Amino acid sequence: MALVRVETTAVAVALMRALESDVPAGHRLFDDPVSGRLLTGLPGLVARHRSARVALGRLAETAMPGIRGTAVCRTRVVDDWCRDALAAGARQVVVVGAGLDSRPYRIAEFAAARVWELDLPGTQARKRAALALLPATTNIRYLPADVTTDPLDALLAADGFDASAPTLVVFEAVAQYLPAPAVAPTLEWAGSLAPGSRLVLTYLPERVWRQRARASRRYGWLSAYDPARLGAVLAGHGLTLLQDVGVEDYPDRYPQLRGRRLALREIERVAVAEVAASV
Ligand SMILES: C[S@@+](CC[C@H](N)C(=O)[O-])C[C@H]1O[C@@H](n2cnc3c(N)ncnc32)[C@H](O)[C@@H]1O
User: Fold this and answer.
1) Distances (CA, A) of 57 to 8, 16, 74, 262
2) What is the pLDDT of residues 117-136, one digit of tens each?
3) CA pair distance 126, 77, nearest whole angstrom
4) What's the CATH architecture for 6-275?
5) What's the pTM value of the predicted model, to 2 decimals?
6) Is 122 in the pocket of ligand 1 (CB under 6 A)?
7) Does residue 78's CB lie within 6 angstroms of at least one atom of ligand 1?
């Protein structure tokens, strides 16, 4: 059985993002003044105190080298690809398994889009309680949903989602917590969206899943994909793979990492795919 509950993973990611604010500007991958404010209880206390953040950063690098690096590099790639999709014309965003994702509240380009956050009811309720203390937004809707059982098309249609408009779907750090057959409906739904819609997803490579069996059990990782086959898997759902990046790409993509002491280790990869134009 997993030692880490899936709902707790949202807190861990938000903490890793909150630590980024202490990184000197020349090395920082993104500015995130929001993640720390979405945390409550002990994680919130840690996020609000610099010395506690520094201690947590050191502990994370010692106890789980690569976890922080993966979280922040992945965050930056997803940020970049969200901005690209919004610049390319996406006017709706659906964040599937949104957890404590701070993007809609910290990236200015999201303000012009209609945004839906989907997550399990408990996680979403805790986030909304924390959001009550932040400036109000009018473009973001919240739908409690279990993506393994709830039909996303019907749920969103009932809430005013326009299935004919180009959409950005963010599916970050969720797939590996679901068995592969339970991931498929989300991919199928994303592939059924309007042509030009994009899906940004993260996934665990099969090799990592197999080689790190103990971590897989501890973190409750339930599925993985072979990067060499990802394009075919996505094509089976009507999606064309555009890019797929991992740890080997980060130092070239982000010169800020040079000279920064951040352990990088192959864990998740990040991919972006597009709904092909119908012929
Ligand atoms: C590691 S967190 C990632 C959160 C967010 N995407 C991010 O990157 O900050 C995983 C999220 O997936 C959500 N999740 C897991 N299983 C889910 C399901 N069956 N339906 C909806 N959300 C789910 C969890 O509640 C949690 O918020």
Assistant:
1) 18, 8, 17, 10
2) 999 999 999 999 999 999 99
3) 26
4) 3-Layer(aba) Sandwich (3.40)
5) 0.95
6) no
7) no
